[in-house]
Amino acid sequence: MADMKFTYVATCQNYGNQKRSGDRRATDILNLMVNNPSLRVAYIDEVEEREGDKVQKVYYSVLIKSVDNLDQEIFRIKLPGPAKLGEGKPENQNHAIIFTRGEALQTIDMNQFFNCRVRFHYGHPDVFDRIFHLTRGGFSKASRGINLSEDIFAGFNSTLRRGNVTHHEYIQVGKGRDVGLNQISLFEAKVACGNGEQTLSRDIYRLGHRFDFFRMLSFYFTTVGFYVSSM
């Protein structure tokens, strides 16, 4: 019943290159698929194709599964060019969305961040209304630089288009992080840079003009207000 209802798609852009070069990580991914028959892996394949006298690189999104301890191709979709136009992580997510099915899509990441109907970050994991988001610009902003924190823009996008974000917290496993001063400093810098970029974006400007007073207070404190208070 679970296999009928759910599909698991893991995205690994470099699987094709890793397999060709005999990288151990490709073997590990294959072992995961063999041990978990429901698992599907999406990757980007770079192929050199000849057209007349010209040899050119062609790019495909490919979905595979394991059959008899080997990987078998299910779908291959030609891309208009190289997929990495923006940040690597959101591009990795965007290229695999076409291989998902159904009305709900759960995005699983490894972070935790939430607040009062002002919760935009999908690393917890979140369940998206797939059809709503596919027709409104996708799940991840992938433009380089400004959308470094690509996941929070999915929430901005949803809220600006009159979507709703609800929060339900179930803690099953606590995640351990490296708590050395250097690691904490790097992490804080990453989050602060991401917030600076969000503050410059048109998404924040538009939300700022549309929220009611109380949501605006929550929104302010969970974005730039936190840094103003800290300073």
From TrEMBL:
Residues 1-112, 116-231 form the Glycosyl transferase domain. Coiled coil: none annotated. InterPro entries: Glyco_trans_48_dom (IPR003440). This is Callose synthase 5. It comes from Stylosanthes scabra. The lineage of its organism: Eukaryota, Viridiplantae, Streptophyta, Embryophyta, Tracheophyta.
